[in-house]
Amino acid sequence: MDVLDPEQLTPAARRILDAAAVLFYEQGITAVGVDLVAERSGVTKRTLYDRFGSKQQLVAAYLLERDRRWRALVEQPYRDAPDPVARVLAPFDALETWLDGATRGCAFVNALAELPEAGHPGRQVVLAEKQWLIQLFADSLREGGFAEDGALALQLMCLHEGVLSLRGTAPGVDAIAAARSAAARLLEG
Q1: Among 72, 79, 119, 178, which one has the highest count of C-beta atoms within 10 angstroms of its own C-beta?
Q2: How far apart are CA 88 and CA 77, in angstroms?
Q3: CA 49 to CA 78: how far, in whole Å?
Q4: What is the spatial distance between Cα 167 and Cα 99, in angstroms, rounded to a whole number?
Q5: Which positions make up the DNA-binding region (predicted)?
Q6: Does 181 have pLDDT greater than 90?
Q7: Cβ atoms of 88 and 146 closer than 8 Å
C-alpha cells in the first residue's frame, strides 16, 4: 500500500491522522499503539486499518503531512525574499513559526531515531525531507551567486539541525537567533 495522501483523507482518516500526529509527537512513535490512536480519534481499529493499512503507513502519512507543512512554510519566505541572503536564510526564518509550541524538538529527527529499519516508509519520508532541505540550501547559494562546493550548504544544514536539537534539550536558549546569525556570518565570508 502506498502512503496515503494526507490531502485526500476521509473525515475518519483525518481524525485518525490528527490524533496520531499529537500522540506520535508528544509520546513517541514506538510508545503509541494503534489502540490508543483509534481511541483518541473515536474510531475502531478496523477503521484505522481500513484507512491506513498499517501503523507503518500511518506513521509515514503523519510524517508526510508534517513534511508538506514544513516545506510550505519555508517556500513562502524563500519566494518572497528580497535578496539572495534572505533567500538562503529563509529556512531559519521559518523556524520561529514552525517551532512555536514544540517541546520535543524535531519530529523528523525523533522519528529517525525510532525507525531504524531502512525500508520503513516513515524513514523514507524523513530522509527525503532532510535531503530536500540541504538541496534547498545548495540551490539558493548557487542561485544567489555564492561560491558553493557543497561545504557551505552542509554547514548551513548543521546550523539548522542544531536549532531543532536544542529546542528539546535547551529550552529558553534562543538557538534560532544564534544559528541565523552564524549562518549570516558564513554567507559574508
Answers
A1: 178
A2: 10
A3: 38
A4: 8
A5: 33-52
A6: yes
A7: yes
